[in-house]
Amino acid sequence: MNQTIGKKVWAIPEGYIPDWSNGPSPQMLSHETVCILNTSKQEARVEIMIYFSDREPVGPYKLTIPAERTRHIRFNNLENPEPIPRDTDYASVIQSNVAIVVQHSRLDSRQAENALLTTIAYAQ
Amino acid sequence: MNQTIGKKVWAIPEGYIPDWSNGPSPQMLSHETVCILNTSKQEARVEIMIYFSDREPVGPYKLTIPAERTRHIRFNNLENPEPIPRDTDYASVIQSNVAIVVQHSRLDSRQAENALLTTIAYAQ
Amino acid sequence: MNQTIGKKVWAIPEGYIPDWSNGPSPQMLSHETVCILNTSKQEARVEIMIYFSDREPVGPYKLTIPAERTRHIRFNNLENPEPIPRDTDYASVIQSNVAIVVQHSRLDSRQAENALLTTIAYAQ
Amino acid sequence: MNQTIGKKVWAIPEGYIPDWSNGPSPQMLSHETVCILNTSKQEARVEIMIYFSDREPVGPYKLTIPAERTRHIRFNNLENPEPIPRDTDYASVIQSNVAIVVQHSRLDSRQAENALLTTIAYAQ
Predict the structure, then answer these.
(1) Nearest-CA distance from C59 to chain D in Å?
(2) Would you call C81 exposed, middle or buried from its count of C-beta atoms within 10 A (0-12, 13-18, 19+)?
(3) Which chain B residues are Cβ-neighbours of C123 within 8 angstroms?
(4) How far apart are CA D58 and CA D56, in angstroms?
(5) If you average pLDDT over residues A75-83, what whole number do you get?
(6) Of C113, C118, C120, C122, which to mutate for an interface test with A (greatest number of A Cβ within 10 Å)?
(7) Among chain A residues, CA nearest to B122
(8) What is the DSSP track for B31-92?
(9) D95: closest CA among A2, C111, B110?
(10) Which one of A7, A12, A14, A52 would you mutate to disrupt binding with B, by most B Cβ within 10 Å of its Cβ?
């Protein structure tokens, strides 16, 4: 496949990392994930900005997705410039130098049984 | 980021606030949420209209989202002009004076374990 | 609001009505729902076609949505020309004479705890 | 309906097949599904490519969807050129010779109660 699929700017208004979990880690650790697909023949340099309800945006968090690879990145694991606080509303904007496709998902294991959500992010 | 992302008119056909909950409040109170991201440099003035199956629309519910902020608004908490009835089908239209991004989500805790859903709203 | 929002043709590839339930009816009866919002000033005349994996499409199922109203229609309740079989894969196409917005959701209560899914349908 | 609905290129960045299940098979076997609707009057020849985080893409997996039919295909069941590994992040690109509509869903039955997610895929 030589075709590049996607857009360069994506947004996810809903962000929330639950602050507790049930079940074996890492599979059932509560997590909020951004899944990025790079179908292009070049590495994607991605920058994520995090928006809050009551303070200035934080970022960029810098990531790379190799050519023709996917990465499923847990917001829980973003550390630089700072970890994302738990039990706090946030939103994210994902920008890339090449076209990518972005999907948002969450596993919430705060109670004994898992809950899942997902959506393709908003592309522009 | 100087770029403004999104559109000014959004719709969510699915609305329903469960009328009971399990688990600690406020995290596990059953809730229906509209998550709004305003990446612009100016305050967003947002108006929400609520549509029903059997009576005239109600609204506008007026909100503001500061520049470069997100707000995750629970329909449960909308009070003016009137609270949204529980256990009742509704839909919503969200309009803003600047471009925003809108995502819909629900936590249903009527049973012992949570259920979650989400989707990016319909943009026009 | 004088603005009409949406499109006239929508599709939902995922359709499946679970064939059993737990919990009080009708709230927790397993159901598959199409939520339609008509923001226009005129009645929407809607036709739904149901597609299967191994036989000819069935329909149209005819519905009306009054001006400035929403209807959350359970596929379980569609009867004419014929009920939709349970535990069977199907898909649906929704067409309207005026612009509408369509969202798909499911409550699956086959086990003790509910599971939920939703997505804005595909618009054309 | 003579109208063909959809696009020819679709992407799903989020892919993950849980590696265990609870409940009766096949309904409650954990599964990841791509639901494809072909409203056209001709057979759709579909090719799926699978992308990983740490190795070359695999595929194409070749499928056909008859005219005016839907198929809900479990990634679990794709065998040729090779099965998709469990408990592994992947993404998929779906290409067709005619316009189709694609939706992604998952049933996760690793714990006693089911969790569900769905989204319309990204179309281009």
Answers:
(1) 10
(2) exposed
(3) 122
(4) 6
(5) 93
(6) C113
(7) A122
(8) EEEEEEEE-SSS-EEEEEEEEESSS--EEEEEEEE-TTEEEEEEGGG--SS-PPPSS--EEE
(9) A2
(10) A14
Q: What is chain B's mean pLDDT, rounded?
A: 87
Burial group, residue D29, by CB count within 10 angstroms (0-12, 13-18, 19+): middle
What's the residue count for chain D? 124
Q: Strands A122-123 and A7-15, how do they pair?
A: antiparallel
- Interface A-B: count of C-beta contacts within 8 A: 99
* Residue D38: predicted pLDDT: 98
Q: What is the mean pLDDT of chain A?
A: 87
Residues in chain A with CB shorter than 8 Å from the CB of D75 are none
**Do β-strands D122-123 and D115-120 pair in parallel, antiparallel, or remain unpaired?**
unpaired
Q: Identify residue A39 by its one-letter amino acid code.
A: T
- D88 lies within 8 A of chain A by CB: no
D77-108 pLDDT, tens per residue? 999 999 999 889 999 999 999 999 999 987 76
Output the pLDDT for position A111.
55
* Residue D60 structure tokens: 């194409």
Distance in angstroms (rounded) separating the CA atoms of residues D39 and C63: 21
Return the percentage of chain A with pLDDT > 70, whole number: 81
Shortest Cα distance from B10 to chain A (angstroms)? 12
Average pLDDT over residues D62-79: 95
Q: Which residues in chain B are contacts of C112 at CB distance < 8 A?
A: 111-112
For C120, nearest residue in chain A (alpha carbons): A119
Q: Which two tokens stand for residue A66?
A: 């190799």
Give the pTM: 0.91
Instruction: State phi, psi for B10 to the nearest 5 degrees.
Output: -135, 150
Shortest distance, CA A69 to any CA of chain C (angstroms) = 26
Contact A106 B123 (CB under 8 A): no
Residue with structure tokens 């592309």? A123
